[in-house]
Amino acid sequence: MTADVPPRPSRRGPSRSGLLSWIALACALAVLAAGFWDRRREPVGDRTVGEVTRVGVADGDVIPDYQRAAAAELAALPAPATPGPGDYALVSFAAYLTPARLAGTLGDTPVSAVVARVPLPGRQTEIVRIAAMRLPDDVVAGMAEVAARKDREAADYRARAATPAAAADAELRRVYDTGASVSAREAAEYRSGCACVYAAVVRDTPEALRALAARPGVRVVDAAPEVRRLDRTVFTPPLPEQRDVVRPPADTGLADPAASEAGDSSEAAPTVSGSSPSGPAAAGGEPPNPAATS
């Protein structure tokens, strides 16, 4: 009779199902770690996106009321608690100025940008914002760049006027012809350093801003101590010819068929540094740079 032999211990390792569970867990942990690392590398969003400050006038505003309100706010502007660059302000002029006359009007006031348009009678010409820190040099250089862009626009209008579609549509051909003519006129004016500047964005102390408001040729100094970033600010100064109520300037060019032959009609175009309505001049603020680009 043989003795009972104890069963041999099993040589099998861990069960297949247990091994797969450990592998799945390890993969899950790797995915979570990668996701956490990617989230840490994501750039932090700008919480100020969508927050825009507007300084100036809007369609329908009564300009004398705007002038009185701006003067009262400027008079009540408190002195800064600590020395600094001062507050931003929108300066509107009583007339369109040349770059040289602009420099004389503003004197030593620090400037960030100017707002300009070619004042063709009865035309909605383009409103442009030109970055300018050195007067009058930056304004002259900016005008030259705008003139070059206007030359390209005129050439583009002429090319469109020569297409079969324009040849078959007299109204479309007239739009292209008048656009080409006005763009060419704008180019010539800007290239000559025209009297086209009617507002400026400046930054100075309250005392200096009040002194600036008393200078000849200055119409309104609209102080804007709430402005912190120019790229989050839209400036809308009144046009010099607007004396009672803010309204879009009349454009009689396309309404008059004879104007296409004279070539002095234009639709309002986007600004050099941002968008602008065809009514009061609108200049979207941006950090100053030496050149104005479309």
For the biggest sheet, the summary is: 5 strands, antiparallel
How far is it from the N-terminal to the C-terminal residue, by CA?
A: 107 Å
Order of strands in the sheet with the most strands? 4-3-5-2-6
* Structure summary, number of beta strands: 8
Shape type:
elongated
Structural features, described:
This protein has eight helices and eight strands, in the order αβαβαββαααβαββαβ. It has a domain at 62-242 and 269-283. It has a five-stranded antiparallel β-sheet with strand order 4-3-5-2-6. Strands 1-7-8 form a three-stranded mixed β-sheet, with no helix packed on it. α4 (137-161) packs antiparallel against α6. It has helices at 16-41, 63-75, 99-106, 137-161, 164-168, 170-191, 206-213, 259-262; strands spanning 53-56, 87-97, 111-116, 128-131, 197-204, 218-224, 233-236, 283-284. With 294 residues, it is α+β, with helices and mostly antiparallel strands.
What's the layout of helices and strands?
Blueprint: H1 16-41, E1 53-56, H2 63-75, E2 87-97, H3 99-106, E3 111-116, E4 128-131, H4 137-161, H5 164-168, H6 170-191, E5 197-204, H7 206-213, E6 218-224, E7 233-236, H8 259-262, E8 283-284
Parallel strand pairs: 1-7
Antiparallel strand pairs: 2-5, 2-6, 3-4, 3-5, 7-8
Helix pairs in contact: 4-6
